[in-house]
Amino acid sequence: MKRLCLGAILAVGAQGCPRTAPRVDFESGVRPESPVADVPPADVPHFAVVSSAQVPGEGRTLTVGALTLTAEPAERFVSSLALPIVGVVAETWVYRVGINGEPLDLLRLVVEAGALRREVIAGTGPSVANCASASLRATSPRSVVVSTRCGGRVESRWIARGDTPRTRSVVVVDAAPAGVGDVVVEVSAEDRDLDGLDELRVAMRPAETSAGARPEGRLLYFDRAGALARDVAEPAQSLTETNQLALRSASRSATSAMALEAERGLAAVRQALCVEDGAPRITVDGVRGVQCGSAGGVRDRAGVRVAAMVQLGEVPAAEQIARALVAMPEHAAAWSGLEVKLRRATTLDRGWRARVGPFVGMPLDASAPGRVGSLAFDLPLRPPAVMVRGDQGGRVDLATLVFVPGASGSTRELLASVAGIGVVVGVGARCDGVSVLLCDAAQPCEPVAASTSSTPAGLTRWALHHTAALDLSSACAANPEALRPLGPPSTQVMGTVLNRVLISLDGRLWWVGASQSAPVSISQRLGAGFAPGGPVSVNGAWAVLPGLNGLWVRNAASGWKLRPVAGLEGRTAQLRDLIISDDGAVIAGLIGTQLQVIERGSAR
After folding, report:
1. How many C-alpha atoms does 444 have within 13 Å on its Cβ side?
2. What is the dihedral of CA 351, 356, 357, 360, to 10 degrees?
3. Angle, to 10 degrees, between the axis of helix 256-273 and the axis of helix 236-250?
4. Which residues of 298-335 are buried (b: 16+ CB within 10 A; e: fewer)?
5. Nearest 5°: CA angle at 83, between 79 and 89?
6. Could you tell me which of 548, 550, 570 has the C-alpha nearest to residue 321?
7. Which residues contact 252 (CB under 8 A, 6 or more apart)?
8. Is residue 145 within 8 Å of 136, Cβ to Cβ?
9. Element (H, E) at 4
């Protein structure tokens, strides 16, 4: 009999017992071993979110059903929200501002005895002035979220409905500084754990992403005993999900470009959300930023970029990203895993050796990091000599490697020239992204030195529409025109053709022009017309970049291949001023000021 009763009780309980709320680890000094993920949306009862509408005209009147309300002389109606009926009361909430943009509290309108009764909902106005744009959303039967835009600042208030509506929580996102990706924040309140009480959910996403790349960082606050406690599973859970999705996309050639977009969006979300990234812009109930941990951090995002570059065939870029990551002591251990991926993706072209030549030229990276190069072949095909240009001129015979000094020149002659437009005097990371800096050819401009800290006046800027792998947040906070000149090994001016500049940024080639810029695809031909003296052959068939274990050599027909160089083991990353012949058979460069000639097989 006892067994029968127990079975009946279990059967009834399986059908009719109320759902038990999930365990939530609240924010405290103790971190949980197994944080609880956000409750799946499938468990949330369906509620059709209702959004506000703009008040037409100048906001002097508002029509509710068959009734019309006239604004007070010192106010103006902006938007209104007809709320779902709870009980028997129909109500409309109105966002309003003062005539001069002063912040005012919300109005609650109730139809009573054939007229509109207006009530002020105290404590619901924005904290700053000039918040003329606002939206109201009923996110559950019990909650309304009011979001106001005040310039670049956004304030969102969760307001609990009832006979006496009150503000439960305030979420503020400050304007993004120059050069930092903007974000949008969606604040909602709903009963996610089915305990009859609404919880606060904050979802942060990058402002500009395509439909397929939607990074997201979430915060979740549960109502416990009338107070809000943050679930410490977030934002690590959502940031990890985003990074894993981006990593899977990066590993497929069809979606690798989308993964790069998602990675940039993930960086923007972390910058706005996480205290570890230096300057969070989100404040929830007076607390600025949250601890995010390593989820979606520098190491995770570098893994996405490396995988995407490998899929795109841009192995030099993948190597540069890996090198930049492991240069940070806290991420040095990541090299072994990244090296395996790079090795698998690398095609080797063996049989090359170096001949050590004389000391020529002068160190120029500090005075002119944005130059093309101080070496040039005297003939583009089967060259008999290397010409030395700049402050110390001369000629090195390739048969004997004897240096014959010649007339001295200037650093200016090492700058790339765009016909009819100007001279490329540098490449710089700015608050708004990377720019190529040009000077009118008729002006006596000097190269932008590595010590320059702000954009020189009078220069033309061609934007790359890409951010360098540098943290300029502190510099840009003090000066929106802050500049950090870029040069070898991360950045190299490769040359110019017609009205475009070819540069290598973090190991990837980009065409940059006055109106647009774009990365060079792996099979894209560079075209002829390059001047002698850069890392691209005159005929445009070959390009060369230094690598850790050899020289990266590009041909449109075969992509990037790595040439290990006998005699320069472990030193090829130090090579500068590289040049390559039109048949790709001879490469020359400098380690310090000493000439190195790289050819296949035995010496001449």
Report:
1. 1
2. 110
3. 160
4. bbbbbbbbbbbbbbbbbbbbbbbbbbbbbeeeebeebe
5. 130
6. 548
7. 311
8. yes
9. helix 2-16
Encode pLDDT of 77-129 as tens digits: 999 999 877 666 788 999 999 988 899 999 999 988 788 899 999 999 999 98
* CA angle in degrees (0–180, nearest 5) for 297-302-305: 130
Q: In 3-state terms, what secondary structure has residue 508?
A: strand
How many C-beta atoms surround the C-beta of residue 244 within 10 A? 14
Distances (CA, A) of 389 to 42, 207, 254, 375, 539: 69, 48, 44, 6, 21
What confidence score (pLDDT) does residue 87 get? 62
Residue 428, SS3 per DSSP: strand
Per-residue DSSP letter, 231: B
* Tokens coding 25: 């680890």
Cα 569 from Cα 212, distance rounded (Å): 43
Report the alpha-carbon distance of residue 155 to residue 282 in Å, rounded.
Answer: 10
Helix (H, G, I), strand (E, B) or coil at 24: coil
Q: Which has the closest alpha carbon to 216: 233, 200, 239?
A: 239
* Residues 6+ away with beta carbon under 8 Å from 330: none
Query: Which 8-state DSSP code applies to residue 22?
Result: P
The encoded tokens of residue 434 equal 């990377």
431 compared with 233, residue with greater pLDDT: 233
* CA-to-CA separations, 314 to 254, 535, 552, 562, in angstroms, rounded: 15, 17, 10, 12
CA distances from 569 to 319, 553, 561 (A): 17, 17, 17
8 Å CB contact between 278 and 297: no
Distance from chain centroid for Cα 439: 29
CA distance 578 to 544: 7
Single-letter residue type at 67: L
Copy the structure tokens of residue 551: 């020289």
What pLDDT was estimated at residue 210?
65
Do 94 and 107 touch, CB atoms closer than 8 A? yes
Distance of alpha carbon 88 from alpha carbon 76, whole angstroms: 29
Q: Are 553 and 561 in contact (CB under 8 A)?
A: yes
Q: Which residue has the higher pLDDT, 372 or 28?
A: 372
Whether the pLDDT of residue 16 is over 70: the answer is no
Confidence check: pLDDT of 327 > 80: yes
Q: Tell me the pTM.
A: 0.84
Which contacts (CB < 8 Å, 24+ apart) does range 580-583 have?
580/535, 580/536, 580/537, 580/542, 580/543, 580/544, 580/553, 581/377, 581/380, 581/381, 581/382, 581/383, 581/537, 581/542, 582/380, 582/381, 582/537, 582/538, 582/539, 582/541, 582/542, 583/381, 583/382, 583/542
